Amino acid sequence: MLLALLGACQSYAQDQFDQLCVGCHGNQANGGKGGSLLGPLKHGDDHAAILRAIRDGYPELGMPTFQHLSEGKLHILVVRILEMRADGPKPPPVQPLDQQLVRHGEGHSYRIEALVSDGLEVPWSFDFLPDGRIILTERAGRVRLIENGKLVPAPVEGVPPVIEKGEGGLMAVAVHPDFAHTRWIYLSLSDPGEGDRAMTKIVRGKLNGNRLTDMETVFALPKGKYPPGYVLFGSRIVFDGDYVFFSIGERDVKGAAQRLDVPFGKIHRTFHDGTIPPDNPFVGQPGAIGSIWAYGIRNPQGLALNPLTHEIWEAEHGPRGGDELNRVEKGKNYGWPLITYGMNYDGTPVSDRTAAPGMEQPVRHWTPSIATSQVAVYSGNKFPHWYQNVFVGSLAQQKLIRFEMKDGKVAHEELLFTNLGRIRDIKTGPDGLIYIALEQLNGASGWLVRLVPADGT
Ligand code: HEC
User: Looking at the domain that runs over 103-453, which CATH code has it been given?
Assistant: First the structure.
């Protein structure tokens, strides 16, 4: 009787943890975006400190408050964490990468080959230079070059300061379509403001040797308008002809994604120098920000162009559940937070609606969240059966998913692999191979890998 009661208590506590915490702290409390709760704790590791962390949270760092929970519930969560800590740290579910292993996808077999497997912190994004080099960002604020398949030891100089805190840091890198003449490199970053404020900023600089020069701002807010905290920055950069598209997250400013007078929770479109195209959808509307192309978006860490059809694909983190893949069109409203398939991290509703007139439905949504990161449209010639397929990567669930689309809807979906690390970026290389940046957990180096066909083996 006593044993049954004890068992029931433990599973109830685990249940609460599973419901409220695993999305950010991982199945075994061994970490995800919220960090491991098994190793040393930043804010103290006794009962009172853990209770305080859960009840009051660190909203500006991405840890929500759970003030509405009864003292009893807070207590069992603390006890459960302390029990899990006593069990000792468990290795994360990352498998070592076997580069010889032939993996079988539908239509193609392939191997995963590592280009860079050492010396990278959290790789966030990369792009290809016309001379064969690869340019890559590390979230901590470094731009790196990969030349002849080797990581150049010295980081690129001249990168503006970034604040790496919460979800912030150096994010996207994109090479100007006419780089050979212009030498422009575009970056998106979390720009530090006054006090605990920060904001996504889009800049460009000319790559000369190992240095960015002639830095210019493509998009920024005045510092006085930076919102507090360090979450929901976005951000990606994509070129299409004379235009550059970039994504900016909601920054946890409630309701902002629906307002046209603030840039948060939007996809933006400008000319390459940041000026506003006169045919943007909200140009001329009083109070509206002219660069807005689409709105109602939460945290768009994925953005890609289909170079053939010029469709723009966007992937965004939902709250708890409700991650989305969207096909973004001019002037449309993607609904956040008025419609969503997710709920708040504390288990309370964001909205009672998942659909509404005048708001777009996602092409695919995920509950529980897989933590969608980058999206890419495969446009190379090495995997002909996957030509024009949409690939989505995920952080927490470490998945690479392939979609065949028909008329903007999912016709078929395949999970290609999982558990090789958090997927940060995906792009088609000029050689037709599929390149992926992986963030390994527990401080191991980030990787840059590529999928190489192994058909007929
Ligand atoms: C939305 C994501 C998210 C959710 C949900 C979440 N956390 Fe956190 N948590 C974080 C982040 C991010 C931090 C790190 C804050 C920082 O950098 O100091 C954190 C920090 C903590 C800490 C302090 C860790 C330390 O190093 O001192 C504790 C304890 C904690 N979380 C417990 C919980 C519990 C228990 C739950 C469920 C009731 C929970 N968290 C749910 C994101 C989350």
Answer: 2.120.10.30
